[in-house]
Design goal:
Strand content: 15-25%
Strand order of the largest sheet: 1-4-5
Distance between the termini: 23 Å
Number of strands: 5
Largest sheet: 3 strands, mixed
Number of helices: 5
Length: 147
């Protein structure tokens, strides 16, 4: 019998939707950048973000590539001559993903976790990162006790 069970999160167990075009996102992101001394208008920030994101995609091999958004956010700071370490880039990516998220919910039928736990087995939750907290292409796995 299996001792460990691995579950995929995004698109399999959880329905996640984001809206990266809403004006509120770019307004608040511009305010965050300004708080570090990197001044952009919301429209300019969105335009530069898209340009740098596209360059990252091209570097990775095409329009469907998932760039590491930490690199994009760091470059946006650097364009304004602001030093940006990995922690600040990661924090900016988290802020961006939090504000852009419209929905994050488990799909119906995810009760499968209960049966696994009742049998004393280990549950691992995995997801492929798409350029946010851990970087594009990183496979994160951890105990999914939050479900």
């Amino acid at each position: 019998m299996y001792q460990n069970y691995i579950f995929d999160l995004y698109g399999t167990l959880a329905d996640i939707r984001t809206d990266e075009d809403k004006p509120y996102l770019w307004k608040k992101l511009a305010e965050l950048y300004a708080s570090f001394g990197a001044f952009y208008s919301p429209a300019e920030l969105k335009r530069e973000f898209r340009r740098l994101e596209q360059k990252e995609k091209e570097t990775l091999g095409g329009k469907d590539a998932e760039p590491d958004l930490r690199r994009v956010f760091a470059k946006l700071y650097q364009q304004r001559e602001i030093v940006c370490d990995d922690t600040q880039a990661k924090m900016t990516a988290v802020f961006f993903r939090t504000l852009s998220r419209e929905k994050l919910a488990l799909y119906d039928g995810v009760e499968v976790f209960k049966g696994v736990e009742e049998k004393g087995k280990e549950r691992l939750l995995t997801f492929q990162c798409t350029g946010g907290l851990y970087g594009a292409g990183t496979l994160y796995a951890g105990n999914c006790s939050l479900f």
